Structure formats: C-alpha cells, structure tokens
Amino acid sequence: MTELRLEGVTYEYPAGVRALDGVDLVIPAGGSLALIGANGSGKTTLARHLDGLLRPTHGRVLIDGEDAATFSVARLAAKVGICFQQPDRQIFQRVVRGEVEFGARRLGASEEEAFARAKEALEAVGLADDLGRHPDDLGETRRKLLTIASVLAMRTSVVVLDEPTTGLDAHGAGRIGGIIRALHEEGRSVVGISHDIRFVAETFDRVVLLDRGRVVLDGTPAEVFAERAWPRLRASGLEPPHAAITGARLGLGSTPTEADVVAALLDREASAVR
Amino acid sequence: MLKLQGVSYRYPGGAHETLHAVTLELAEGTITGLAGAAEAGKSTLCLVAGGLAPRVIGGTIVGDITLDGTDVTSWPMHHLAEHVVTSLQEPAGQLSLIADTVFDEVAFGPANLGLPPEEVVARSDEALHLVGIEDLRERDPERLSGGQQQLVVMAGLLAMRPRHLILDEPVAHLDAAGSRLVLEAITAIATAGTAVLMAEQRSEALATVCDSVAVVAGGNIVARGSPREVLAHPATIAFGIEELPEERLRRRLSKAGLDPDVVAAAT
After folding, report:
1. CATH class of domain segment(s) B1-83+162-236
2. How far apart (Å, rounded) are the C-alpha atoms in residues B70 and B3?
C-alpha cells in the first residue's frame, strides 16, 4: 500500500500559467479522497503529478517517503494507475481485451493472469460481453468504462479517476460509485476528480477543494458541505449538494447525502417520541 | 423549423438501425431536451438532426428531414451548417486546432460565415462574455482544462448565432458556475429565436432550461412532455434517467417511513 505526499507543490505550464501554487497534501495508504474545484482550478494538473506525468516546478511529490523525481514513469505506473477525463486520449489497442490487458502485462502479469484480470475488470464495469470488440465500435459511455477497467486491471495500490462519471447515465454512475467503495474496502487509495457534487458526497471519505491551484478546504463531506463552508464553495463556483441544502433548511445540521437527511429526520422523530 | 419525420438511421457497417422512425420538431425559440440511458440513441439523434450523419460519418438514413418545409437531405454539409450547428460530446475533439488563442478559436465559426471583421470581433467578444471566459481570451485553447475547453466550444457556437443549435451534453464537464452560465446562454439564444436540441444526462439541467423533454430508449422516442411531467414520472428510473434531486429525496423519505412532504416545507 502506498502513501502519497505533496510538499509545497507548485506547477507552472510552459506558457507561464501557474496551475498549482504551493499544495501540501497527504493521501494516506487506503485513503479515499475527492478533488473538487472550478474548471481550471488545477485538479487534473494535480492528478498528473501523482503518477509522474508532470513534475513539480517547485516542491516535491513523495511516494512512500521517496521523492517521485527519482522514480521512472514506469516504476510510478506500477504504484499509481490513472484514468483520464477523455477516453479517446487513452485508448489505442484494437481489441477491448488487449486494451485492458496492456497495462497489466507491462506491469509483469503473465498472459493468463492478465486475461483473468481483464475479465474481472470488464465484469466490474459491466463490459464483460465486449471483450472481443474493437474499442472504436463502443459508444462514448462504454469507452469511458473501458478506460476505467484498464486501470483496475493494473491493480495499482493507488487509483486516480479524473471525472469518472462524466457522460455516464444514472446506472453507470452508480456502478462507478460501487467500484470506488470496493477499492477503498480492499485498502487501496482512490483519488477522484468530479464536478458531480452528489456523487462526491456519497462516495468519498474526504473532500479537498482547490481554488486557483491552492487547497482552500479539506475535510469530510460533512465538514466541506456544512452550511458554514457554503460561501467558500460558492466563491469557487461550486454549489453544495441538494441534500445539504435541504438538511440546512430543515435545521438538521450538516447532511451531505440523502441518507444523512433520512437518518437525521429519523433521529429527530425518535427524540420527539421520547 | 427543423423537422424530422419517420427518420431511421444505420451507422456504416452497423448490423441494425440505431434510430427507428423518429419524429421530432424543433421550433424557433424552443429548447427540446433529450433524456435517456447511455446508448439509448441520444447522441445519434443529435448527429442526425445536425446533419453530420450521414454526411460526415456515413451510414444510411431513411425518412424526411425538412427545414421550413424544404427537404434538406440532399444539401451538402457546408450549406446545412449555415442553418444548423452541432456541438459534440468531447469538447477537445471539436477545437479547430489551428487557433493560437481562445479568441481566434471562438472567431473561427463566425469568420467562416463570411461576416465583416467588426461583426466577427463583436460577436466573439460577446460570446466570451456570455460564458464567462473573457479572462481566457489570449490563452492557447489546447492548454486549457477540459471544462474550459467546453466553454470555448460553446462560445464559438454562440458566436455563430445559428437558427438551430444541437448540443450533446453541453454541461458535462462544467462546474456549477460554468453550467449556470452555459444554461443561461442557451436560454438567451433560444429567447432570441434559435431552436435548441439538447441531449443531457443531468436531469436538473433539463428541468432548468427545457420547454419539453423527449425520452429516448432503444432508438425510439418513447415519451415526451413538459420537463416536470417527464422527469418526475415514476418510470424515469427504469429508463436509466437520473431522478430530480427532490424526487429522489422524497422517494427515500417515503421508503424510510417518513413524510416526503417535509421536503416541500424546506423549499
């Protein structure tokens, strides 16, 4: 299992745009964390530092205490699997099976092992029947699920998912939520980037808000989506989840998810009876 | 008015039709939403309504597509594009890749309509303002985040001021503030007379802007009505459509034996 630590990470793109500005962040082994923030706040740039696709302009990324700058991209890829926002930038094989096996094979899995993992991963995302198809023959949604399967098959101890629910329907998004929770239960770390605030509140244990490359909120969903944090969220162009707004109006305290609203109302009824 | 009547479509090499005898009218000044599960046919319907299928991607089509009563099925793409403009799902795939700045990218569409330069500049600046990205004017479009690119693509479409605008998930990559600006811009362009067709997974976005919503399932339009009639209907979930947040909470409260009307009291 792997701990990730960012120390004063600043990143400037060649054109001089500062996308990250002194980020300190620890993602403990087995942590489940969502990065939220406005478009262009630095979420994807941060994710690309986690697997060495970008190297900080200043500061350090430590993987289990070792400076990631000393890792080759290949060695980092064995620890951190990343799934990009746009599937077409990632898919390159001619058969679904090959696409999913590719990463596992590069990480040293035998042919049989890679196939077994590919089957399992495709099963998890609901693409078991598409094993022999050409990725281009899959719709947008299935290509997205395919990229997630490819990362799952690598069995890295950290999984980074950039906008995993974009373009998925309610059913697909629910499936992804289940996969993330299962990974977390297995003790792997999951870092998710999402604009879907309800999905974030229901799926992750910890939420980090980025604003212009800085961490401005960091806490549990109940903390980050509590009423006192709304001005901060809104200043960053985000809205709290619907359940949090309803809970606050009903005087229930912080209820980031619908399940929290239901629980708080049941509590209130129970104490009224007493 | 853009009208599809009994339109069926089959992708090149496809074993089956993806759309079956779809009839749809896009009237000036209205916003029509398309809801439905993944692979129900929403994106295909957008490609067909926008004329990209079969003109650009191939395939075979039957049925009638008319623009103000004129059959357009034989029109070449550049001719149709003066009347109907489409935005695809992946914003990065839609950038021209020849513009060095966001401004040039946004101006690309109106400039290709042959408008006078002053008009191109005025429209482009207005469009940048509408979607709230004036500060990105001089940036390289290829070096923006996914969401920012989606806003750039949207500004480029708005600057063309098309009579018909086809949008496939226009807010998918956007934060709450960006979504709000884009949805307001869509409402504004419709109020100015454009007919808009919008495929969208987020039910709240559909409920916010649409005049009517059609449910697509298995390549057919299986239901249509006002956004509330359609999206608050109990059958919605079965079609893979996201429930409206309030409806979902009400359902969960009922299931827990609580009074769902407590939600209404909170709004």
Report:
1. alpha beta
2. 10
